Amino acid sequence: MTPTRYFVCQVAQAFGYNRRAQRMGEAASEMHLLREAEAHLGSVVWEQVEHVDALSVEYWNLRKLSRDRKRVDEALSKLEKLLEKAHDERAELLSTASGDAPELLQKRNQLMLELEGFAVERDRIVSEARELRRVHTGIKTKLEVMLAEQGPGVRERDEFQQGRQRLEEIRQQFDTIKQRREQIGQAIAEGDRILDEVDAKISESRGKRREKASEAFQLIGERNKDLSLLRAERGLIDTQMRQLFGEIGRYVSRFAHQNPACTEATKKHRNLIDVMRALRNSIALNHKLAGNQ
Hints:
Layout lengths: L2 H12 L5 H26 L10 H40 L6 H49 L7 H97 L5 H6 L4 H20 L4
Helix pairs in contact: 1-7, 2-5, 2-7, 3-5, 4-5
């Protein structure tokens, strides 16, 4: 609101064009801009007003709050790094298939391959034994029939003797196969026992890994809580500092030409002070047109 516009608005009001709501809206908008400008000015000049008696309280409170904010920022930076590390550790724990015992999985895979080989060998032996039993049964039946049809004298015949000899060979083969089957059975039983032990160790390792992940999750929760508290503390400090910046900016902008210390502090911000003065005048004129003065 410039003086010229103010005069035009006054003339308009004389003819019944009274826009009080518009004037109040403009005043509110300009007041917001003024407060922003005061806070900005205060933030850039506050360290230069140590010797302005009227701002002594604000200056020293800002010194204290600046120190507190630095402490909080350092704590936040440290905590954020610790939190990032905790997240990385937890992610690694959850994404690792074998935890801290990859050799156990390797051993388990090797055992599974060996047991699979033993199972194949056992099936082959059973199949061989079944075939021998079928041959044994056939030869035995043949000799029984020959004995029944031809009488005891058939025992002396070469064919009968060869049959009996073949039965003896089959029994010996059975003994060898039985012994081999028992050896494989023992090997499978031992492999199963070792496999159970390895599985137990893997389960224990995974349990420890899950426990570590749970501890990491709990730690992350605690650090997030601490982080929230620190951020809230920093937010409170920022609010308090902004209020003090505003008070300092308001004072030095009003007394920039009367107080030498304020003049010195604001010498690099003349343009901003001129804008702030114009805003104050505009706010006052808008309130006057709205009938508040």
